[in-house]
Batch of 2 targets.
Target 1
Amino acid sequence: MTWTPDVDPARTESRAHPLAAPSGPPRWLVAIDVGGSGSRLVATTVPSGARPDAAHPPVAPGDAPHRTELTGRSVAIGPDGSDVADVVRDLCASFVAATTGSHDAPPVVAAAAVGATGLATLVPDPATVHTALRTTLAADRTAVAADALTAHLGALGGRAGAVVAVGTGAIALGTDLRRVWRRTDGWGHLLGDLGSASWIGAHGLRAALAAHDGRATGGSRPLLAAAQARFGPVPTWPVQLYTRPDRAQVLGSFTPDVAAAAAAGDPASVQILTEAGRHLAETLAAALVPGLPPLAAATGGVLAAGPSLTGALARRFAALRPDAELVPSAGTPLDGALHLARLLTEGTATGGAAASTAPAAPLVAHAPWLSLGDEPPAPAPSTTTPITGDPT
Amino acid sequence: MTWTPDVDPARTESRAHPLAAPSGPPRWLVAIDVGGSGSRLVATTVPSGARPDAAHPPVAPGDAPHRTELTGRSVAIGPDGSDVADVVRDLCASFVAATTGSHDAPPVVAAAAVGATGLATLVPDPATVHTALRTTLAADRTAVAADALTAHLGALGGRAGAVVAVGTGAIALGTDLRRVWRRTDGWGHLLGDLGSASWIGAHGLRAALAAHDGRATGGSRPLLAAAQARFGPVPTWPVQLYTRPDRAQVLGSFTPDVAAAAAAGDPASVQILTEAGRHLAETLAAALVPGLPPLAAATGGVLAAGPSLTGALARRFAALRPDAELVPSAGTPLDGALHLARLLTEGTATGGAAASTAPAAPLVAHAPWLSLGDEPPAPAPSTTTPITGDPT
């Protein structure tokens, strides 16, 4: 299951029978990933092999799953924090409209899960996102997670360990989904996000300006040429950047140019990607705290910036944690959100009809990483690793 | 003449006779410095020794100069750029109100000059600032300069050379006020301003977060403690910072803590200040282009951050330009703005009654650094060093 980034925003894809199953309407799992550079929804009907619960009998075994994918806008950060709930509401409404068109009745949603950027810091109350899911989808069960958690679930497929997610920002989470929750970085483009697209782009633009200014060190003429091609004359750059609300995305938009210059051998660009990889390794290693198995992964589109970055990441991580295994990412944050939605149907801690036969441990809410519907966001249990205190 | 930062916002200080001169009302020079952390106005009556012009006879020789100082708010950057003109209008109105109260008639302003932050990049049209000066002060002659120029005039007292001004941001200008105009850095906290207060503060907060996250390198526990004392619990920092319009100032507000930690021996803080000094030296050296005498200075409150910064600046500059002299700054940007106002009364290129006996060369407008009233902002003469092209 891979994400198709250039999917038609309203495409509904039916892999087998386009009609509803004879035994009743199909039941959907809905997963949403809300990021700094866009949002995505994927919905799939519950496959025959999924464990049903008492309230929702399985669809007929002969039915192949339907699958729907939609794209939406990115979040905006304003004086009240981010508008994740609005983005989720719009995507869900589009899903309902598209699916109702196919089936002549609103879709029946068994579970819906959202992974959202900035959730750990900039959304004061995940309840607004739960409300958006319930009012648009009438979902029985809902989960709202930080994108660091859905990235973790996607990359390690539900296994315990540490995952660094590298997009416009960069954040790592070390967790077993139960007792250990250790976050590192994810502090945004001014305070951290070291090695992320915004970090790489900002350093690339600084190298371009160093060449423009004629500084003694750090300049890159290839990056200056690339930045002028992308942003126009140098004196216009500040007003283009500082008057926009999405500065981190603007900075990150230069990262492909840094990757291209590095691929062409520009020393300054290679150096920037190498430092980015080292930063990401330190972020990842710091999240792999005692109590977790020595398992780690990195995920995110920025890893495609080239071997300068990924090589430095692997070397530095091996130096910091020679005992640990750095495995390839098994899937995307959107895959992780779908995994989370599936876990909701296998038994939760929300008092719903948990399947007694489910071998998986029930999901446990843990603020600010995971909140579950039908209950207020739970405070962090006292036995878990505090995220606000100092590391030991 | 030094700036007193904690002056009463409406204090009018009369150094000698509080009444108008018997030969007529006193004539004022008004100077304004608009910065990222506040704005200041100083006005002084034209001293007896100043060269008068035909339209404005000198005050009686026996009159000692009056002096008035006011403080105002800092600029805000919005979708339309900075609001320098509004800040200037408010300060001038306060000056007129205070001075009218003392003299029972509006002050007669011979010349007014403004140095403003971001003028080179974020104010599309300095004419709005000229209009603010004329409508509030009825000034005969006005000048609107980038703060880099007033810093230069203040630091070198009108001599040719290069000056780096270090406040919330950092910018250097190499100029002889006639043919050579070379700017380096000043690109704002996301693209540059290397070594400035916002740069130091951001790096200090990153060191604090590195300690908080338990990263392998770069952490500082003293800075973590200082940042928690200043900003509260770590998880609240992003929402405090990213929802504010004055992010650079918030970052810069941590610089005194970095300076204090460095003074107490914190290695990470010493390293940050040392790198800041090196960056400033490279910015300054890059502005000292051929055609200028080998004379340079650094100015701004951030230089008080300690010997780690100033020592690194001096050493790195000496290594880059062993032929050049790095002199102590002779005055502040506000002094430079007053110098500029005085130059306006000594003869300008605006078609006014220039004193034929003035030994000083007439002021020449040069966008975006200096624009003069009574004429549209002049395009850069083709014989000067372009600021938008590549350095050679």
Target 2
Amino acid sequence: MGNPWNVPVGGRWKAVERKLRVGEVALRCVICGLAVLVAALVGTDTQTRRIVYLERKAKFTDMKASVFLVIFNGIAACYSLIQGLRCIVNVTKGSVLLNKPFAWLIFLCDQVMAYVSVAAVAASAQSGLLAQFGQPELQWMKLCDLYRGFCIKAGCGLAIAFVVTSCILILSCISAFNLFRLYGNNKR
Amino acid sequence: MGNPWNVPVGGRWKAVERKLRVGEVALRCVICGLAVLVAALVGTDTQTRRIVYLERKAKFTDMKASVFLVIFNGIAACYSLIQGLRCIVNVTKGSVLLNKPFAWLIFLCDQVMAYVSVAAVAASAQSGLLAQFGQPELQWMKLCDLYRGFCIKAGCGLAIAFVVTSCILILSCISAFNLFRLYGNNKR
């Protein structure tokens, strides 16, 4: 039992299980709040610049990756809210997830959320780097010198999206644990 | 035992375990081969065009996302080769992974590979979409009309990278299963 890799069985098992479920609720609440913040920050990001007699406007919809990020964070907020409520009900009722089809459903949804989240952040980061540094070899000019305020707001949104993704990754490990330990076979 | 969600225990368990390990070896071999192909396809992608008296060249290094994709696929090929050899040794020796620290190590490595793989493909897909369609609002012009051959080769590389990523995602589920079932607690 002194082995740090072993989850304790018997009496202490219940305590670990409870901690895990409380952690899951906390993570889902954090994700819900931060995802709303990301969607609001990036989704309202716009800046108009007047260059001599020409008016030019940058909107978040100019970058398809930002639109993807906003939509994904909206979905992530709703999903986390529903899952968070489910977890709270479970914690207060003290019931344990032992239903395999349901654990599979949660596992698959959490996995999809994790991978789509990484994809959204990676695509947005790539767009952000192009906006910040441009790509002179391809004649794609940098935009952040012109639209400073726009880029700062988008950068903040992206930084928070990184935190949201990290939380979702931890959650996907917890739901993998919750699923696969049901297949444990201690009799071998 | 008729429940499709139950992994059979006892005698049939060993058969399932063996199938899983053979599947793991096959997936790691497929990843190794395809990752080398992606790195070779994208890493040698270049096209020179002469426009009137001006010579212009597109190289894969012009897109930072392609460089990321090539480097990641190189690493993925090496990693899969090493892991594949480990799996083959395990299958031929008939030993079962019951060592928790080692299962944790494999799980963490596979998770990192899965997420970095998704990030590389997403960033490359974003760059590819920009090259294909441009972003007129931002004065980023499309490139694929000019560099047709370059774009087709990069597109093939990206399509294969999608397959590699899918295989890595399945593997990460298998290694999560291999780890977390060690924490199963059938005594409850």
